[in-house]
Amino acid sequence: MAKKRGILIHPEEVGNYRADILVESDLNLVAIHPKGGVKAAETLNDMLEFVKTDTFLEFAEKVRNKGIELEYEFHALSWLLDRKLYYTHKDWFRMNKDGEQVHDFNMCVSSRDALELIAERAAELALKLPFNTDRYFFWIDDVKAFCQCPHCKVLTPSDQAMIIYNHILKGIKTVNKNASHCYLAYLDTIAAPKNVSPDAGIFLEYAPILRDSNLLINDENCVKNWE
Ligand SMILES: [Zn+2]
């Protein structure tokens, strides 16, 4: 039997109603998931304020008293690397296929300074998540958009994601030496990285969002799931 059985809920769902359902269930983990998309940094900031409120703290007390652990999962990159920095550090952002440096999504993973910054910001963010376990889920942006600069274009999207996750974990470990961090296998990063290895403490989070959930994940007659 799995050691952890849990669900993800949005911050808007946190409250007595969900807490009572969780307490009556045999789940032992609940993760809070603010929405991603272009407003990911905004919804994350909203959640960081929400976790200071009585509503959240009462919810946390109720579920934790039942032995249900709390985690947080969200698209963090636009919070870790503020898009406004584009105007002073264009080279920190990704190059698109037309050779233009753009600040829409993700980042240039060949920029040492940008990687150092996201590591520092990840440490800061880790300290803002009350009652979190030692597992962290600071995902990259929720899109298919990676860096095509001369240094990055030899790297697969999964390689680029792994570089980012290794740096995020390095940062978090400065404030929690027991920390571990996910590698989110999802959309363009569903394949394993080819040129970059996970650092110690990286674990796989497998999220085949495009699979057909009406069928078994290994259904041989379903091309989508077979892929
Ligand atoms: Zn690059």
Structure description:
The protein has 227 residues and is α/β, with parallel strands linked by helices. It has 2 domains: 1-74, no CATH class; 76-227, Alpha-Beta Barrel (TIM Barrel). 32% of the residues lie in helices and 15% in strands. It contains 7 helices and 8 strands. The protein has a 6-stranded parallel beta sheet. α1 packs parallel to α3 and α5 crosses α6. The chain is globular, with a radius of gyration of 18 Å. The model has no long low-confidence stretch (mean pLDDT 93). Bound molecules: zinc ion.
The profile of the biggest β sheet is:
6 strands, parallel
CATH fold assignment of the largest domain:
TIM Barrel
Name of the top-level CATH class of the largest domain: Alpha Beta
The CATH homologous superfamily of the largest domain is called: Glycosidases
Question: Span between N and C termini?
Answer: 27 Å
Number of helices: 7
Helical fraction: 25-40%
Return the average pLDDT rounded to an integer: 93
